[in-house]
Amino acid sequence: MKGPAASALIALLAWGIVTPKAGHGQAKVSGCVFALARAGEQIQATGAVVSNVRRGEEASTNNPFPFKGDVAFTLGSRGAAEAANQKSNAVMTSPQLQSAIAGQIFKACSDVVTVRFNFSGTDWQTVLFRGADGRVIRGTCVDAVRGSGWPLWGYYRCL
């Protein structure tokens, strides 16, 4: 494996998304892994910094799907004045780029229902949801009310 695919795999190994197969020294790579790698490359191609990529579970009880995969991209770094943070701000404020990335991930990763974009060291986040018809739903932040339960699908609690 050479070129962009090798670079993407190295990044996914570093982020902990892919782990080498025991005893083989090679990683097993799926279409989903490549979609995650491509997403990271697309973000970094803007000049933004991807400081972390995490796979987890969407905990919402209003999730209409039988699967709960969540992917979170953390952008930016500690120095607020850094040029890379300004580029990361541009990614955080680009619904078109975020929707394109989420759509690619939803298409390649059948178990993923939410894609999050977080800005490092802040409460700033955007959540995109998988729609029932396969489209990307841009989430709406709602104030968390203690004891109110989970917001409807397509809404998320503001941090």
Please give a handful of descriptors for the protein shown:
single chain; about 160 residues; alpha/beta; 5-stranded mixed sheet; two-stranded parallel sheet; 4 helices; about 30% helix
Q: What would you note in describing this structure?
A:
The chain has 159 residues and is an alpha/beta fold. Helices cover 32% and strands 24% of the residues. It contains 4 helices and 7 strands; from the N terminus they run H-H-E-E-H-H-E-E-E-E-E. The N and C termini lie far apart (41 Å).
Summarize the structure.
The protein is an alpha/beta fold and 159 residues long.
Average residue pLDDT: 82
Quick one: biggest sheet? 5 strands, mixed
Give me the strand/helix succession: HHEEHHEEEEE
What class, by secondary structure content?
Answer: alpha/beta
- Biggest β-sheet: strands ordered side by side in the sheet: 1-2-3-4-5
- Strand % is 15-25%
Query: What is the alpha-carbon Rg in Å?
Result: 16 Å
The total of beta strands comes to 7
Low-confidence stretches: 19-28
Helicity, as a percent range: 25-40%
Bulk shape: globular
So how many helices? 4
Give the termini separation: 41 Å
